[in-house]
Specification:
Largest interface: A-B, 42 and 42 residues
Shape of chain A: globular
Oligomer: homodimer
Low-confidence stretches of chain A: none
Largest sheet of chain A: 5 strands, mixed
Helix content of chain A: 25-40%
Strand content of chain A: 15-25%
Number of helices of chain A: 8
Strand order of the largest sheet of chain A: 10-9-8-11-12
Radius of gyration of chain A: 20 Å
Order of helices and strands of chain A: EEHEEEEHEHEEEHHHEHEH
Structural class of chain A: alpha/beta
Distance between the termini of chain A: 25 Å
């Protein structure tokens, strides 16, 4: 997805293009650059301030995508350089979750906050950590992988090869597994397991009063609350924002998460740190996040 | 302890005074201020650039000590203000571990590093986290309490009232307990438990080949390595520094910690983050740390 976003977060253009159609990144860059150039002509009173990119496995320092498992492009892709060569403008790139976190800071609920944590509850659990008003990239640009904090050393198998990572419990994938385990333990016959049961399906079941579904949210929230309480011991944020499919389940996920969070917080942090829903719209977050990279830089 | 430190980290004066002799903080401030003023006269070619204070439960933003359980002074003490009223100079205050972390950055092994974590292994486990070249204070100045990350929700009772905090395992107190548990499980009759067994005692036993002592270090390192690997997922530091009594045990603690650390790291972080002994001398760290608050500010 790409588009044009003005400095107030207004989306002037939004288009979708699939990386899958482009065997090499140079072709995608050419096509998207052309479309951006043409689209920009429709807004003669605007000037292109720069290009922000949110990408899987994005390296902020180098402007590269590095060994992204879900992309066809292999190895290290200098995507920022490719775009700046084409468009002759400032290009900044970071990973999706960091971009969305900056989007929350510039256009969303974290406006004016200097210390907050942003969590995306999608297929996995992504995160962006802001402290002292700056994104924490770490020495290698790969900071903020809270989804891969090991919660239980002998816990669930994670896609990363280790066991017990937070995202094996607290993500769409995690809650599906929890729900499915609960159903099996209760000998519920169901064809719904596997493909059909996604976070939305479990939310709907919970709304209908299904005990396993509600229990799955409670279990997920209990672990998420513990993990977030531990996170506070690192950066003591003013607020923690939850984004993504699972966060859309509202009280089903927020209530047990907050309860567990307060229970597990060190006393000095109690009753002063908010867990809030992201103010970015699901469909606009990627675009606003990417654009906010540039608008933050220019602020 | 107070003193005079020049901008190269040379200690010109070091004196000790006990807070216990002063029922109210104003008296301590008066006495120490007078001694500093007189001592400064001995160095006519130096100018007092400011006063840095490392204090238990120190609030950097407010310059206060807040409800420190180990001090006689109760409530909130505006220590920075008291000193600046007396000495008419810039006064900065933070907690002990943060001050030592800044000391490591200005005068020790973290010179030139923008992202590192500093861990003190004393009675408890203290920490200071530096990211983007800045100390992370969080929204309330109480960030960096890695010692109170809950490692095992039903683990050892912690002094904070919760269970399973990292410092109940990885600290002088923690290893004493581990050693003592090991001895009991092996039915070792010993009068050495309790008062006598401190980290140094266990280190000496390990040097003498005592299996329980070596095992106690291995167990401590296993948990510390896991906790540090999880910490990397937050801020991806260039290095992690270990300071304090337990760190003085050298390979007995560093070897199992590093092994566990690499084993538990997410693959993107492997083989690139160093676990290093602090370069601050045990007896000078508090003084250098406090002074570095001012020298960092003036850099």
């Amino acid at each position: 997805m790409f588009g044009l976003v003005d400095k107030n977060g207004k989306i002037l253009l939004k288009e979708t293009v699939s990386t899958e159609h482009f065997p090499v990144p140079e072709d995608l860059v050419m096509v998207v650059s052309e479309r951006i150039r043409k689209a920009a002509l429709q807004f003669p009173d605007h000037e292109l301030a720069g290009v922000g990119i949110g990408a899987p496995n994005g390296n902020f320092f180098k402007g590269t995508i590095e060994f992204a498992p879900n992309l066809k492009w292999e190895g290290v892709i200098p995507l920022a350089e490719l775009f700046s060569d084409r468009l002759k403008t400032k290009v900044m790139l970071t990973n999706d979750a960091n971009a969305a976190a900056i989007g929350e800071m510039i256009f969303g609920g974290a406006k004016g906050m200097k210390d907050f944590i942003f969590i995306t509850l999608g297929t996995g659990l992504g995160s962006g950590i802001v402290a002292n008003g700056e994104m924490i990239y770490g020495h290698d640009s790969f900071a903020g992988e809270i989804g891969h904090v090991i919660m239980f050393p002998d816990g669930r198998q994670c896609g990363c090869g280790r066991k017990g990572c937070l995202e094996t419990y607290c993500s769409a994938t995690g809650i599906k597994r929890t729900f499915s385990d609960l159903q099996m333990s209760h000998h519920v016959k169901t064809d719904m397991r596997g493909l059909v049961a996604d976070a939305k399906f479990i939310h709907e079941k919970a709304l209908a009063g299904d005990k396993d579904a509600i229990e799955a949210f409670n279990y997920t929230g209990e672990i998420l609350g513990l993990a977030l309480a531990n996170s506070v011991a690192y950066t003591s944020p003013q607020a923690i924002f939850l984004f993504g499919g699972l966060a859309l389940a509202g009280d089903f996920i927020f209530r047990p998460t907050r309860t567990s969070f307060e229970k597990h917080l060190l006393h000095i942090y109690r009753n002063k740190i908010k867990i809030l829903p992201s103010q970015l719209k699901e469909n606009d977050a990627a675009l606003l996040g990417a654009a906010s990279l540039i608008w933050k830089e220019l602020k």
